[in-house]
Amino acid sequence: MAKRRLDITDIALAEVTDEFLAFTNQLRDTDHASTTEGLEQLSSFLVVAATLLDLKTARLLPQGQMEDELDLELLEARDLLFARLLQYRAYKQVSLLFREQMTAAGMRIPRTPELEEKFRDILPPLEFTATPEVIAALYATAISRDHTPPTVAVDHLHLEHVSVAEQRSVILGELASRGRIDFAELAASAETTLVVVARFLALLELFKAHLCDLQQDTPLGPLSVVAAASGEELRSADLGESEQDAEPDRED
């Protein structure tokens, strides 16, 4: 059709059928019908023949002014079939081009030349600019480094136990010798926050035992701790073990 510029309606269905039968007989005689190539040729012939028959059917439809939507759909179907035939032809040509390129590439063998023997042991010139003094300085720096493995400090996770009874004895000693101390002074002389808490608990126990008194002259003013007993009684006071120091019983 493309070479002779024939109209699709000029092709007889009988001619297409005869050509298909002759083609299949030729493949059978050459024993190619059972091969992959023979099946591809048969399927390709069927695709072209079916497309031509669809085109001819669409072209044989009545021509004239299109007033019905069905006629427009038939024309669109005809154009679609013709475009499908052209697309098939383009794919066929591209596949042949790929086959030629793959066949030509299969005959090429890459060459991997090796380096000649006389050049294998030749090394590039060494440009060494470091002086003995520089090397000695680098060595001294390397051996002077601290090679101790790094460790993670866990001291803050295991706090030291602070005894309330010991802090109570400290407060009793201060009251016995001075008679009056400021609570701010007790907090300022504490080493850690836990010591401040222990001294506060010790003051509560002493106040409960009537061994000290708390005075505050003005609201929100300085808080003073005053001895409520004589110095001898304070030194000899024995309140026993603090409840805050006793560990709770653990159940197994």
What does this structure look like?
The chain is built from nine helices and three strands. Among the domains are: 1-60 and 71-91; 164-245, Structural maintenance of chromosome 1. Chain E (Arc Repressor Mutant, subunit A, Orthogonal Bundle). A hairpin with an 8-residue loop joins strand 2 (212-215) and strand 3. It is 55% helix and 4% strand. The radius of gyration is 54 Å and the shape is elongated. It is mainly α. Mean pLDDT is 75; it is low at 1-6 and 246-252. Helix 1 (13-29) packs antiparallel against helix 2 (36-59), helix 2 (36-59) runs antiparallel to helix 3 (69-106) and helix 6 (164-178) packs across helix 8 (193-208). It has helices at residues 13-29, 36-59, 69-106, 117-120, 132-144, 164-178, 183-188, 193-208, 231-236, and strands spanning 180-182, 212-215, 224-227. Strands 1-3-2 form a three-stranded antiparallel beta sheet. The longest helix is centred in the middle third of the chain and has 38 residues, at 69-106.
What are its keywords?
252 residues, three-stranded antiparallel beta sheet, 4% strand, chromosome partition, ScpA, Segregation and condensation protein A
Summarize the structure.
With 252 residues, this protein is mostly helical.
Stretches where pLDDT falls below 50 for ≥5 residues? 1-6, 246-252
Across the major sheet, the strand order is 1-3-2
Strand composition percent = under 5%
Number of strands: 3
N/C terminus separation: 100 Å
- For the record, the CATH class of the domain at 164-245 is Mainly Alpha
- SSE arrangement, N to C: HHHHHHEHHEEH
Helix content: 55-70%
Q: What's the name of the CATH homologous superfamily of the domain at 164-245?
A: Structural maintenance of chromosome 1. Chain E
Radius of gyration: 54 Å
Largest sheet: 3 strands, antiparallel
- DSSP helical segment count: 9
Q: Please state the second-level CATH architecture of the domain at 164-245.
A: Orthogonal Bundle
How much is the average pLDDT?
A: 75
The CATH topology assignment of the domain at 164-245 is: Arc Repressor Mutant, subunit A
Class per helix and strand makeup: mainly alpha
The gross shape turns out to be: elongated
